[in-house]
Amino acid sequence: MSQHTGGCRCGAIRFEVAGAPVHISYCHCGDCRRASGAPLSAFVGFRAADLTFHGAKGAAYGEAPVERRFCATCGSPISYADARLDGQIFLMLGAMDRPEDYVPTVHGYTREKLPYLHIDDGLPRRETTTVPRPEGENR
Fold first, then answer.
1. How many CB atoms lie within 10 A of CB 135?
2. Domain boundaries in the chain?
3. What is the model's pTM?
4. What is the mean pLDDT of the chain?
5. Is there a smaller number of Cβ atoms within 10 Å at the N or the C end of the chain?
6. DSSP string across 38-51
7. Strand partners for 41
8. What is the sign, positive or negative, of the torsion defined by CA atoms of 29, 31, 32, 34?
9. What span, in angstroms and rounded, lies between the C-alpha atoms of 12 and 34?
């Protein structure tokens, strides 16, 4: 697959990515739970240079170095970016037109996982991040 597309619930934001995914994961951290309204989040990461947005710009929220983007009209979460991960952007799996095409390969922040949530998929579990950040920065 060379073209990846998605957007928000109301259609005000659309995007396409020309390159291949560089990372697909689940995240169990409390920040992702609050941002998504779900017990865990799933992301597909791409090179930011391969991503093109169409339509509304959307809105952003976050504390540096993290920025989360969402639709200002319908509230749909769209992406997660971390300035420490230069050149990468992580799109919410639920914002993809074909989320079934992006199978997560790892669980992150399992130390924050909700105790009643059990996914027996055999994937590796990481207590903190699944994407390496600079030395000593795990969040």
1. 5
2. 4-112
3. 0.91
4. 93
5. N
6. SSSEEEEEEEGGGE
7. 27
8. positive
9. 23
